[in-house]
């Protein structure tokens, strides 16, 4: 047959021809198995050549230490605003302690409770009796605004003595704790209203801003209306509306009203 070569002196070895043919011409399955092996090195080299994205630079240790140090210093330096915000949610005794410490430091025009505590430590080192007198004086100077609460209740009867107002509060508590509570709330609202309107402290101390609010709060908060949370809020709101502004306040703070009254031929205030 053409195209074939026969060996001399022996039969044709068919298995040998099949082996040589398969070894010379690889199958499609063998080429598929070799392709991934040939492609992997190329992919690895291309992936290595791709630039990797760089993240934000991390601060080194000195910068971290400086940032933490400045953050810690901000908590105790200046007026300590973070401490003041935290103190607003605490009980009244802790708030009074904060006021006393800040008041002790206000002698040097410093509004810092930690500075006030250190100043008290210096006073104790100098003289314990001096430190005790300073603490008591600062405490009474801090809570002296609260004197207007019993005085405002006493002014319903025309009394400007805090002890007399305290006796009246005891009488109200014996009769009705609800009446006692609303009388105190009304006096507090009157005091705060006077402070908000920049009234002279003397008038606030004398209870001139509280007696009308006391009566209004008692009347609405459980006396003539059934006590609910709606009537309670209404009583507090009416306290603000019934603040009795003394006549001297209108003439001192609003002198323009007299001029308007003269132009309209009315009696000056």
TrEMBL record:
Residues 42-63 are annotated as: Disordered. Keywords: Cell membrane, Membrane, Transmembrane, Transmembrane helix. It is found in: Cell membrane. It comes from the Eukaryota. Coiled coil: none annotated. Signal peptide: none annotated. It catalyses: urea(in) = urea(out). GO terms for molecular function: urea transmembrane transporter activity. The chain crosses the membrane at residues 129-146, 166-192, 204-225. InterPro entries: Ammonium/urea_transptr, Urea_transporter. Belongs to the urea transporter family. This is Urea transporter 2-like. It comes from Sinocyclocheilus rhinocerous.
